[in-house]
Design a protein that fits this description.
single chain; 264 residues; alpha/beta; 6-stranded mixed sheet; 4-stranded antiparallel sheet; 25% strand
């Protein structure tokens, strides 16, 4: 991303409204505490990368945001929709929250018995009430955006892993989310196919999409995201502007993690 684009994105972020607030979020599985006292906010158009060692709670945090894993404690507010661990979310709240927060998983979660076009169109029909014709038009436009306009009639099994992940991104975008959540979107792909997916994500970032990306792609974290959050042992160690934090972490634990990554 050019320095001019970065400056423009920074100016837009400073003027943008808050779209996400995470307050005192904790998550336990039995006696095992996975997340502890997580607090951060995001503005519309901001891209945040979450990095850290395996087992630090990154993916669990992402799943807590859209209530796939309801937090044990704390509250989350996304695009004006608030949920609190003290009060179970209603079905209406969950539907609204998951429409606002599109999610792309490590595994592609596509329906193998349906065409690529149907995989992208069906959620629009069921969640947004679009007609098949309207949903198909939107799907074809999004498949073109991710470079797969000629794959609509094929089945996922005939597509590469990188293509399947791009289909999953198109499917999430089709519901017009306010924020996109990416959970290690390239971890199941070889490096070449991973680059295809990262290119689409970079294009989304440059287009102003609000994004949280749990990733092991350090170059993406440093050069595409606006801000980096470093997690370890279920807590946020540090957060700050991407380049400065990646190059000059302040805590000893963050320094050890980044040094280990760079020396691989």
């Amino acid at each position: 991303m050019s320095s001019m684009n970065e400056q423009s994105r920074t100016e837009q972020s400073q003027q943008a409204e808050e779209i996400l607030r995470v307050s005192n979020v904790e998550k336990s599985f039995g006696t095992h505490r996975v997340l502890e006292d997580i607090n951060f906010t995001m503005k519309t158009g901001e891209v945040v990368a979450i990095i850290g060692p395996s087992g630090s709670g990154k993916s669990t945090l992402l799943r807590c945001l859209n209530q796939l894993e309801p937090p044990t404690q704390g509250s989350i507010r996304i695009a004006g929709i608030s949920v609190d661990a003290k009060r179970p979310a209603t079905k209406k709240q969950l539907t609204e929250l998951r429409r606002a927060a599109g999610m792309v998983f490590q595994s592609f979660n596509l329906f193998p018995h349906m065409s690529v076009l149907a995989n992208v169109s069906l959620p629009q029909q069921r969640v947004l009430g679009r007609s098949k014709a309207e949903a198909d038009r939107r799907s074809l436009a999004l498949l073109k955006r991710v470079g797969l306009e000629n794959k609509g009639d094929q089945y996922p099994v005939r597509c590469s892993g990188g293509q399947q992940q791009r289909i999953a991104i198109a499917r999430a975008l089709a519901l017009d989310p306010k924020i996109m959540l990416f959970d290690e979107p390239t971890s199941a792909l070889d490096p070449e196919l991973g680059l295809e997916v990262l290119a689409v994500m970079k294009e989304l970032a440059e287009g102003g999409m609000t994004m949280i990306v749990v990733t092991h792609e350090m170059h993406f974290a440093e050069t595409v995201s606006d801000r980096v959050i470093i997690m370890a042992d279920g807590r946020i160690l540090e957060e700050g502007p991407s380049e400065s934090l990646m190059r000059n972490p302040q805590t000893e634990r963050a320094q050890r993690f980044l040094q280990a990554v760079k020396n691989r």
